[in-house]
């Protein structure tokens, strides 16, 4: 029998022209206890979403507690936790507001005479607690410069992994509610 729990959530601040870019990610359901009494969170992918002139509706969920992230590229992610789902009914969640994220322009520099590799992996987390942050990135032409969008205000720790040639580069950047940032990450050759 297919799961019949669902939820709906009104999203404020979402321009109609980007509503199709809204993603529901990291949906996990907690349904029962392990032998030791620990809750088990399981990723759930068998759901259907719709959003036509109203709230986002998510259907096809099992009963239990849910947690998930709403994400639109260039906007701050919204995390919701502890959503109680009951079989055969729809949970109506409080309205959430999407807020445009801050932008960080990252220039990557390698030691003189060495080019920055093209396969760069950028990750970001909150400096205060290590929480991983969602963002979009775009390389700017031939220069080793990337524009990262969607950060909340505060201190963000960026990491730059270029593979086996260089050590992973790190930098912390601080952004206010209405300010973006530019940083440079200087790579160091990995020791043999």
Topology:
Layout lengths: L4 E8 L10 E11 L5 E5 L4 E3 L5 E6 L2 E8 L6 E8 L4 E8 L4 E8 L11 E6 L9 E4 L5 E7 L2 E8 L7 E7 L5 E6 L6
Parallel strand pairs: 1-8, 9-15
Antiparallel strand pairs: 1-5, 2-3, 2-6, 4-5, 6-7, 9-12, 10-13, 11-12, 13-14
Write up this protein.
With 192 residues, this protein is mostly beta strands. It has no helices and 15 strands. A 4-stranded mixed β-sheet has the order 4-5-1-8, with no helix packed on it. It has a 4-stranded antiparallel β-sheet with strand order 3-2-6-7, with no helix packed on it. It has a 4-stranded mixed β-sheet with strand order 11-12-9-15, with no helix packed on it. A hairpin with a 5-residue loop joins strand 11 and strand 12. The chain is elongated, with a radius of gyration of 20 Å.
**How much is the average pLDDT?**
89
Would you identify the regions where 5 or more consecutive residues have pLDDT less than 50? none
SS class: mainly beta
Give me the oligomer status. Answer: single chain
A few lines on this structure:
The protein has 192 residues and is mostly beta strands.
List its salient traits.
single chain, 192 residues, mainly beta, 4-stranded mixed sheet, 4-stranded antiparallel sheet
């Amino acid at each position: 029998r297919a799961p019949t729990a669902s939820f709906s959530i009104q999203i404020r601040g979402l321009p109609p022209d980007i509503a199709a870019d809204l993603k529901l990610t990291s949906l996990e359901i907690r349904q029962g206890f392990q032998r030791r009494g620990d809750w088990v969170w399981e990723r759930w992918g068998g759901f259907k979403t719709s959003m036509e002139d109203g709230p986002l509706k998510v259907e096809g969920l099992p009963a239990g507690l849910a947690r998930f992230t709403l994400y639109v590229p260039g906007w701050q992610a919204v995390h919701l936790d502890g959503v109680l789902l009951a079989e055969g009914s729809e949970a109506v969640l409080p309205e959430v507001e999407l807020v445009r994220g801050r932008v960080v322009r990252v220039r990557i520099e390698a030691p003189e005479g060495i080019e920055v590799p093209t396969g760069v992996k950028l990750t970001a987390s909150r400096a205060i607690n290590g929480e991983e942050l969602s963002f979009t990135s775009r390389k700017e032409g031939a220069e080793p410069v990337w524009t990262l969008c969607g950060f909340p205000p505060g201190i963000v720790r960026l990491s730059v992994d270029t593979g086996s040639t260089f050590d992973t580069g790190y930098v912390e950047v601080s952004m206010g509610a209405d300010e973006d940032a530019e940083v440079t990450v200087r790579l160091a050759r990995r020791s043999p």
